[in-house]
Amino acid sequence: MINPSKKGKTKMQSFALNTIFILISLSHLSIVVSSSKPLNPCNGDFLHTQAYRQMQNQTNTTHCKKLSSLQAQFAWNYHKTSHNQTQLNILIGTKLITNMGWLAWGINPDLPRMVGTRAIIAVKVPNQITPSVNTYNITKDIQLGCKFQPSGIDFMVQNMTGVDDKDVGFFSVFATLVLPQRYNVSSLNHVWQVGYCVDGLEPKMHETSLGNLDSKEVLDLETGDCQNIGQHRRHMRKIHGILNIIGWGTLMPLGVIVARYFKQFPIKLDPCWYYFHYCCQVVGYILGTAGWGLGLFLGHESKYYTFHSHRVLGICIFGFTTLQILAFQFKPTQEDEYRKHWNVYHHFLGKTAEESSPRRVEIEEDNKGQTKEGSSSRTIEVQE
């Protein structure tokens, strides 16, 4: 192997750093773009459900929108009462064609998250004509396995009704809330959730898909505009995936291919192959590490929601590639006695990292669906 000069190395390092700076800057620019979204009107079967027609007749719905996940649609109207409180009529519905399941909607006075939410949950079980609807306080104790039972909440709820409209396959919940002043109607933190496991009338853990994780937003009841909290995370997950695909999945393997096949055959690029190999490895490592770091941040933000296989493979790939990059600094010369052992180690580690990357992409694709890492015997999952 021909060693590059210091000047050549400096040029490659400068090019690598400039490339990564441009890519990270573009990624950062896209992340800080506002996620505020205008009203996305309801459509389809929801507008023809029995529950929606009843709400229209009784309260004259003024807003209706499709929510960002779980195929849910949400209708509401509100007005101020004489006691400076807010009377809010809500209707939420989603496709729930199974014989058993539950639908939850709630608001959080502090943050757009599940912990601390005052929820209304409708439960349907086989052979029950009318779904059971109750109020619940969702606390961290639920995550610890405490029984999830109906409880009073800090505002009045009236006319709670669950409707299972089998003609169109929609399961809906209607309620009238009387909100105190602490609930800001211009930035209301609301969350929703769907589950398919019920023990008696107790909701059990929902499926662990990314859609379940993203079911929260900050809503302006007056305009219908929302700040989609889940949209931020979806955007960051896309950046995480793009950086990893380009870094670990493209540039690192490309560097391996160049080192393996372009020394002599089919095209002799000596010594240019080494510079290209070095550049691919360094740029790929920096991009992959940036994606890996973003993945750590996403994992920290969703502490109750973990893709174990994806995380373990990511840590392994980062470790393997770090050792590979260090090999450039500690590579022995051709005359050193242990050079052949270093060659074996370098080849084996590169092959391992190369094989791990596609497997991690496969697992990530599986994670986009509905994973089953949780047991149905656990209570409803509490998400930060």
From TrEMBL:
Location of region: Disordered: 354-384
Membrane-spanning residues: 15-33, 241-262, 274-299, 311-330
SMART domains from the UniProt entry: B561
Highest taxon in the source lineage: Eukaryota
Chief localization: membrane
InterPro entries the record matches: AIR12_DOMON (IPR045265), Cyt_b561/ferric_Rdtase_TM (IPR006593), DOMON_domain (IPR005018)
Biased composition (Polar residues): 372-384
Any one of the GO CC terms: membrane
Domain Cytochrome b561: 202-384
Gene3D superfamilies referenced in this protein's UniProt entry, alphabetically: 1.20.120.1770
One Pfam family from the record: DUF568
Compartmental location: Membrane
Domain DOMON as annotated: residue spans: 70-195
Keywords: Electron transport, Membrane, Signal, Transmembrane, Transmembrane helix, Transport
Basic and acidic residues biased stretches: 354-371
Protein name stated in the entry: Cytochrome b561 and DOMON domain-containing protein
Organism the protein comes from: Gossypium darwinii
